[in-house]
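Q: I'm writing up a methods section and want to include an example of the input and output format. Could you take the sequence below and give the corresponding predicted structure tokens, formatted cleanly so I can copy it straight into the document?
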Amino acid sequence: MRPCRFVTGPPGIGKTTSVRRAVALLKERGLAPGGFTTGELREAGRRVGFFVEDVLTGERAVLAELGPGEPRVGRYRLVEKGLGLAHRALEEALLRAEVLVIDEIGPMELKDPGLRGAIAAALESERPGIGSVHQRSQDPLAHRVRSGCQVLEMSRENRERAPAWLAEVVKEV
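A: Here is the clean output for your methods example:
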């Protein structure tokens, strides 16, 4: 994936919001981004899981939820349907999209071999890409992003300009 721009930072700083806003900016410019974004599932103000959304179709599915079962990442059980949706969204993006979107490269997304393979293929692609990368991940794919892409460490001071910064990846083509 060249050129590529990713954001990183602590939970709640606005990484996913920035990626979603960048996707909207790309669409406003007439480009076709594709891939996936993630988000929190909340009940009564408490996080109970995560969802994944296909950037091209808008389809959503649960990615992880509280409860028993395997595979797990921390307190959350990964859900096959959500992992499959993210995998398919990224594979379809590799075929059709002008800009690849991966939100996020983190423990949940990298736990599934199929999705991990799709992320690796996207990182090898020559298409421009944007996304977010888990701040503390030591995984080789996260390291590949940090060493091969421009990465913005998000803060309260720079988070308002992060979406435009991400969307400018296309000017580098």
